[in-house]
Amino acid sequence: MPAQELMCEVTGFRELTPTVFEVSFNPLPALTFEAGQFISIIVPGAGPHGRDLRRAYSIASSPEGQPVELCVKLVEGGPGTNFLYKLRPGNHFRGMAPYGDFVYEPKAERHACFIATGTGIAPFRSMILSDHFKKNAPLSTTCLLGVSEEAEVLYDVEMCAHPGIRWVPCVSRPKGEWKGYRGRVTDYLRSLGSDFPWLETDFYLCGGGAMIDEVKQILTGLGVAKDSIHQEVYFKAPK
User: Fold this and answer.
1) What's the CA gap between 208 and 119, in Å, rounded?
2) The dihedral sign for the CA sequence 104, 237, 146, 155
3) Which pLDDT score is estimated for 236?
4) Cα angle at 215 between 230 and 69, to 5 degrees?
5) Do you find a cis peptide bond into 98, omega within 30 degrees of 0?
6) Pick the CATH number of 111-235 from 3.30.1370.10, 3.90.76.10, 3.40.50.80, 3.50.50.60
7) Region 4-99: CATH code
8) Do domains 4-99 and 111-235 have the same CATH topology?
């Protein structure tokens, strides 16, 4: 489906964590997309010489639901995140969508493992909520989320309530009495051991480039085929 320009009316805004917020909106014309795809937000006048900028954000809501929801990390000095952070119900913005091919690809007699850091959970939430996923569910689903502090765990109550989803938030530097897994998401992955169906699983990775590189190294070392690893890199730190 080709991307089209949208005029979007904001219907809701809420803080999800101390650093992540959600913007919900209704687009015109209506947006048809696949779970895992993203929208390119037009940030007016934020570019050189007052030109518009475009910034990409994965859609966090189901393709079948309204309004559309974005899960956005507030980045100091980030033109896209700061533009979105100021929007409130009744405001409008422009965007182009849908884009991307990071979508769930069902395969017979296979498991699925979703691995995210931070707001990289957004496309996986969209996939899990989608009719496409529900009608083509894998043999089992594991969803891992890596964050630094327990206050940054996203969609915890919602994900815990999904039947058939093994939901594991991994907190690398908990500040309180965190009762879940303590460590990085890659540490948890290594801990799964030989009982995990490594060669019968399709892996979907989304988030920071360093995490994705490390996970791919772990998986290839275990003999997981390259075509069983799918990725969406949100950012990669310069060398």
Assistant:
1) 10
2) negative
3) 60
4) 55
5) yes
6) 3.40.50.80
7) 2.40.30.10
8) no
pLDDT of 238 strictly over 70: no
Task: Give the mean pLDDT of 155-160.
Answer: 96
Pairing relationship of beta strands 20-28 and 38-43 according to DSSP bridges? unpaired
Q: What is the DSSP letter of 78?
A: -
> Which residue, among 10, 39, 37, 4, has the nearest Cα to 26 in the 3D structure?
10
**Using one digit for the tens of pLDDT, what is the confidence trace for 83-122?**
999 999 999 999 999 999 999 999 999 999 999 999 999 9
pLDDT value, residue 46? 87
Report residue 31 CA to chain centroid gap.
19
C-alpha closest to that of 114 among 88, 138, 91: 138
pTM for the whole thing?
Answer: 0.95
What letter does residue 155 receive in the DSSP assignment?
S
Query: What phi and psi values does residue 45 have, to the nearest 5 degrees?
Result: 70, 15
